[in-house]
TrEMBL record:
Key word Manganese present: no
Bilayer topology: Multi-pass membrane protein
Major location (coarse): membrane
Transmembrane segments: 42-62, 74-93, 99-122, 134-153, 165-187, 215-241, 247-265, 277-294, 300-320, 341-365, 371-390
Source organism of this protein record: Paenibacillus albidus
Any GO molecular function: transmembrane transporter activity
Stated name of the protein: MFS transporter
Keywords, comma-separated and alphabetical: Membrane, Transmembrane, Transmembrane helix
Keyword Cell membrane listed: no
Length: 396
């Protein structure tokens, strides 16, 4: 990788890190904020479903803009819309729960615009030889922001008490989004890539010899787990501990473990370890849920969170690298990278939506701690489904 490309990669990671920081400051406690207004699992689930629908659709619709025009403007608009979302939360206050669907859709559009542009540029400035290394750095940044931001947010909300603390946290996020937007202007404009093919994600799956069928199915299994776990764990920690500061401490500890595990994975995890790593990671990700079968409290949730943070790189790094490597296996697929990134996201979206529909259906009938734990165990098996599908195409 050339020095100039390395600098662009580092700058892109800085933009990514600030975007994650702003979202982690407020996003960690967003569902808690909603829960305190209305204790309703289904409401939180529908809010997440609205996000995922908008995320997937904005990936597909914005693909034309990103491929044929300036993808950096899509990235900047994603940052701006994220700021607008938190501005609306500040304005609505306690009435936020009355606008779950429009707010969820807005947050999904923001994420779709940012992550589509980010993934395309990330693909362009990395290759199969160094992708695991850069994936490790992305994990490190995510872990670092997870250490700093939620602890600070939890401290501010607990110290300032109630609505005032939340407002301060949301304002901090707005300021960081503004800084992220400024930094993004130092990223070079990328070349356009030809005409956008709207139906290419569908065609990629329909081809008789398509390798994307298996990858898309594996991504669907990944989405099954993460769609529910991404919002449920933090909410369970708050319900168990009844303090925002405890959720901040939980996220600090689990993110510190994640920081170490992603650093180690980035340093030592090689492509030839992907198959065994995915299998081991999938088994261990299920095993760490089992303490909740005895009791759902702060301690057992912390054990699960630390275990998840420790083992998830074994699963996630092969998942990310496999799909991106497939995009770059030929000049034809590389030329259709925008459409293939859209296919990747739509596959994840399908899994997330399926998982969340199951979550809402089950918890509408019974929301006891035992049922929630069994549901988590069932969804937690999904990484093993990804491994079963990909095991023959992964390096051994």
């Amino acid at each position: 990788m050339k020095v100039s490309t390395q600098r662009q990669a580092a700058l892109l990671l800085a933009v990514n890190g600030l975007f994650l920081l702003a979202n982690a400051l407020s996003g960690t406690f967003l569902n808690v904020y909603l829960w305190k207004s209305r204790q309703d699992y289904a409401m939180i689930g529908w809010f997440s479903i609205a996000q995922q629908l908008a995320l997937g659709l904005s990936f597909w619709l914005a693909g034309k803009w990103v491929k044929e025009h300036n993808k950096m403007n899509a990235l900047r608009l994603g940052i701006a819309v994220s700021g607008l979302f938190y501005l609306l939360i500040l304005f609505l206050g306690g009435d936020t729960v009355r606008y779950i669907w429009p707010l969820g859709l807005l947050l999904g559009v923001a994420g779709g615009l940012f992550w589509l542009a980010f993934n395309i540029v990330y693909f362009e400035i990395t290759d199969a030889r160094n992708r695991d290394f850069w994936n490790g750095w992305i994990g490190l940044l995510g872990a670092f922001t997870g250490i700093v931001a939620p602890w600070l947010s939890g401290y501010l909300i607990s110290t300032l008490k109630g609505e005032r603390g939340y407002r301060i946290v949301f304002i901090l996020s707005l300021c960081i989004f503004a800084l992220t937007a400024v930094l993004s202007f130092f990223l070079r404009k990328r070349k356009t890539e030809g005409a956008y093919e709207w139906l290419e994600p569908w065609r990629a799956l329909r081809r008789p010899d398509s390798r994307w069928r298996g990858v898309a199915a594996a991504l669907l299994f990944q989405g099954l787990r993460e769609g529910v776990f991404s919002f449920l764990i933090g909410l369970l920690v708050y319900i168990a501990a009844k303090e925002e500061s405890k959720l901040g401490q939980y996220t600090l500890i689990t993110s510190a473990v994640s920081l170490i595990s992603y650093w180690a994975a980035g340093k030592w995890f090689k492509p030839e370890f992907r198959s065994k790593g995915m299998l081991l990671g999938g088994i261990l990700l299920v095993a760490v849920i089992t303490p909740l079968l005895w009791k759902v409290n702060f301690v057992t949730l912390l054990i699960m969170g630390m275990g998840t943070s420790l083992f998830i790189p074994l699963y996630m790094l092969p998942m990310v690298s496999t799909s991106f490597d497939l995009m770059g296996e030929s000049s034809d697929s590389a030329g259709k990278r925008t459409e293939l990134v859209v296919l990747r996201e739509l596959s994840l979206m399908a899994g997330r939506l399926l998982g969340m529909f199951v979550f809402i259906a089950v918890l509408t009938v019974n929301s006891s701690p035992r049922v929630i734990t069994l549901l988590m165990l069932g969804l937690g098996l999904a990484p093993l489904g990804s491994w079963l599908i990909l095991r023959r195409r992964l390096p051994h």
